[in-house]
Amino acid sequence: MSKTDELRAMREAKYARAAAARGGQPQARPRPVPVAPEAPKRAAKADPTEAAAPETDGLCGHRSMNGRTCTREAGHAAKSHRYS
Q: Considering the domain boundaries, does residue 73 fall inside one?
């Protein structure tokens, strides 16, 4: 018997023991409950001067997939971002 055949036999035996332990019944997975999307909330009227001047500290501010922000200067010519 080759090594892969032995591993396959061990794996099948493990699954058989697990099936016997739960009574041979397949496990039922709970179905996710559908949730209705929330209605968009209306924003209170804000001062137009506040909306026109976003808070920037001179950095690029590009966000990575894990939430970190770019620390290069705003409008940098480099193709890559430096995250921290």
A: yes
